[in-house]
Amino acid sequence: MGGQRGAGGVAAGAVKTVDAVFPAPSGIGDEVIGVKEGADVSVHGSFDSIVDGLVLTARIEAPVAAECTRCLKPIKRDWGVDVVAFFPYEESAKAPRTASPRTRTWRSSRGRTSPRMCIR
């Protein structure tokens, strides 16, 4: 009797734990503050399958390098953020949605389906 299958073919209610480290891509930040390309970015959380997509609930952490614009002293700190992101299945992405005030649509420079992300 399996669970209801979403548009992506994954049973709604399925959970996949994520505990991984990835190299940071280029373009996170600017000349003053950012994550250096290739730095370790850790993701700890889970993907939850719902009928029309996947929900990522995770803690993402990375080392941030900055420079004080006043004294030019280098600043290095670990930075973390809790995120909840919705990745709609292809069929769901075409359906119109109304966004809540805490939801934003993010565009990927690589043309992939954009998640709707809420940073807590």
Topology:
Layout: E1 15-23, E2 33-34, E3 40-50, E4 53-67, E5 74-88, H1 90-94, E6 104-105, E7 116-119
Antiparallel strand pairs: 1-3, 2-4, 3-4, 4-5, 5-7, 6-7
Descriptive labels:
elongated; single chain; 7-stranded antiparallel β-sheet; 120 residues; disordered C terminus; mainly beta
The succession of helices and strands, N to C, reads: EEEEEHEE
Q: Provide the structure class.
A: mainly beta
Taken from the alpha-carbon principal axes, the silhouette is elongated
Proportion in helices? under 10%
- Mean pLDDT, rounded to whole units? 78
| Radius of gyration using CA atoms only | 17 Å
Describe the structure.
The protein is mainly beta and 120 residues long. Helices cover 4% and strands 48% of the residues. It is built from one helix and seven strands, in the order βββββαββ. It has one helix at 90-94, and strands at residues 15-23, 33-34, 40-50, 53-67, 74-88, 104-105, 116-119. Strands 1, 2, 3, 4, 5, 6 and 7 form a seven-stranded antiparallel beta sheet that branches. The model is unreliable at 99-120 (pLDDT under 50).
